[in-house]
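pasting for the record
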Amino acid sequence: AVLRQLDPRNLSLLVNGFSKWPDQPGCGDGTFAVAGEVLRRAETEGFSKFNPQNLTNLVNGFSKWPKQAECRDATSAIGTEVTYLADRANRLSDFEPQGLANLVNGFSKWPSQAKCRKATSAIGTEVTRLAGRAKRLSDFSPQGLSNLVNGFGKYPEEQDLRQAVADIAAEIVGRAGKLNRFPHQELANLVNGFGKWPEEFDMRHATVAIAGEIVARAKELGGFTDQHLANLANGFSKWPEQTREATVSIAGEVVTRAGELNRFGYQELANLVNGFSKWPDQQKTSEATIAIAGEVVARAGKLKGFANQELANLVNGFSKWPEQASTREAMIAIASEVSRAANRLRGFPGQELAYLINGFSKWPQEPGMRQAAVAVAGEIASRADKIKGFTHQQLAILVNGFSKWPQEERNRQATAAIGGEVLRRADHPNVGLSDFAPLSLANLVNGFSKWPQEPGMRQAAVAMAGEIASRVGKIKGFSHQHLAVLVNGFSKWPQEERNRQATVAIGEEVLRRADRQDVGLSDFTAQGLAILVNGFGKWTQEPVCYQALVEIARGLGPK
């Protein structure tokens, strides 16, 4: 009853005050009561008496309790009002820059709420409008810009928000000489946000500018929190060519904190490993990853604390250092978790399942890896009618991984299911297998060849042979290894006409490379040449295959 007597300003001041102590039950209860009153007014009299500052304070305060239904519903109602103001003669211009940033930050706590998404989209349009007016984004503080980018990043598929973030990125580039004024947290949040659009030039340009600032602060990285370091490493990994030095600096800081890794959150550890894995040849990134692997082993009984994506990122990252004992031990612990909780795999999308099997396959001699791979294969086999949504690359990675353990029945079943999907795609009119990358084609053929008695595997390999034969003149882009693997695979079914045609096409490419005066076939490894000889030997009646054998023999003869 008392709350009904308060005007909008005082309601917003109450929430603003309570939000300073979100861990205090009394402050939470008071805020929930105000949220109920705000929702009542939204449903009865609307928000016409609330000014922009009142709305901003309310959203900012409610966002401190994102799990509370009253706060969510009240914020959604305010989202509807913000969308209305945007549609009504562009009334968002009444909000201060900091107010717009606070609204986006608040709405981002409930990204699945349609009303919050629409309001955020409207603010994105307003940011783009402001960017079109000379230097208007200069009115936003570093914190305001980072809040906008972080909030917009919750909806990376929204075109208007992508444009707004691109405009902010351009503003960051314009402030490149003043980034020393940005607090650590804002730099980390900006990089994390820009990473949602790695294909965008503006985002890359801005991230590279921030990377330069991180290098300049290399001696101050002790002031960054664990989460800041993780966000930076994860964001920089989207542009590894330009951010190596900055990431190496971060890895060095993680190494200095090696004795304190038990305080790092699960997401932070996964993001760090995912980021460092883009530079496996760097000593510091290697040392930091090995230290994190030790921490993962120490948490062996608590790995369920990692979310599915985090677990997959760890596997993908550790697999870049297969020769390290620490990463192997960490992988064994993760494999055990996957085998123990196989039902958990139902929540893994195609990309994460591919990460898992690709990582486990780096240690095929480990019983634990084999058991985990079989668990993944069982999940794939159970989704035989749902793998249409998997990308070409994901299918190829899965087959390549399962083929490391061809004696396993579940691996055969999963690969057979993928073979059926490849055949389905091969029959697609006007497309077929034309958009499969060389590596994917090679991995699929190589994997299918491990089960040569399976009709489905043979048919899928034959379909891919037809694709290779149709690319005559285009297989120059295939690496030496791709060519060798393809010939090896096709040779398992020498009676197939398409396999013969594909092998002849590859033989012509091998002859073309043999004619290069400066290189010849010297770029092929000894194993690659041996595989070619074995494969071409199945079709010695073919002049091209025979001549390719002659050229390989000539290259191996006395110099």
